[in-house]
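Appendix C: a fully annotated inverse folding record. The material below is reproduced so that readers can follow the format used throughout the book. The structure is listed first as C-alpha cells, followed by the designed sequence.
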C-alpha cells in the first residue's frame, strides 16, 4: 500500500469515526429533551456543542466503571504517601481560595456565584470524603462529625 493509499484509509477511518460520533450526539439529543423545552435546532451551535459534551461525559462516566473495579481489585489497602502533608496543605490552600472566591462572588452578587459555589461544594465533599477515609482510628469519629456538621452542610448552602 502506498503512502497516498494509507492516508486515504486513515482519512476514511477518521470520517467514519466523526460520522459515528455525530450520529451518537444526534441520538442523545433526540433521546434527552432540553431542560427548557427548546429544540436542538433552536439552540444552534451552542446546543450542538453541549450535546457533544454530554455524550463525551456520558462515555467517560461509563469508562470509569471498569477503571473503578480495576482499582478496587489491584490497589493495596494500605499505602504510605511520601508527601502526605503537602497533598493536604495544597488541597486546603485550594479550598481556601475557592471559599474566598465564593465569598467575593456572593458579596458582589456576581453572576459567577453559581460557578464558585459549585466548585466550593465539590471541594467540600471531596474534603469530607478524604478526611473520613484517611482518618486514623483515633480521629475517625472527629472526622465523621466534622463531615456531617461542617463540610457537608456548607456544601449544601445555596
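Designed amino acids, in order:
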Amino acid at each position: 500500500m502506498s503512502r497516498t493509499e494509507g492516508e486515504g484509509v486513515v482519512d476514511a477511518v477518521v470520517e467514519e469515526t466523526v460520522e459515528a460520533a455525530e450520529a451518537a450526539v444526534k441520538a442523545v439529543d433526540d433521546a434527552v429533551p432540553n431542560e427548557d423545552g427548546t429544540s436542538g435546532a433552536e439552540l444552534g451551535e451552542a446546543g450542538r456543542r453541549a450535546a457533544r459534551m454530554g455524550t463525551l461525559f456520558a462515555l467517560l462516566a461509563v469508562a470509569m466503571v471498569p477503571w473503578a473495579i480495576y482499582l478496587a481489585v489491584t490497589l493495596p489497602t494500605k499505602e504510605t504517601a511520601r508527601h502526605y502533608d503537602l497533598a493536604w496543605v495544597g488541597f486546603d490552600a485550594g479550598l481556601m481560595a475557592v471559599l474566598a472566591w465564593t465569598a467575593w462572588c456572593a458579596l458582589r452578587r456576581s453572576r459567577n456565584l453559581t460557578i464558585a459555589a459549585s466548585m466550593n461544594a465539590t471541594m467540600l465533599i471531596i474534603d469530607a470524603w478524604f478526611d473520613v477515609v484517611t482518618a486514623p482510628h483515633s480521629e475517625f469519629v472527629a472526622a465523621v462529625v466534622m463531615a456531617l456538621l461542617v463540610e457537608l452542610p456548607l456544601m449544601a448552602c445555596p
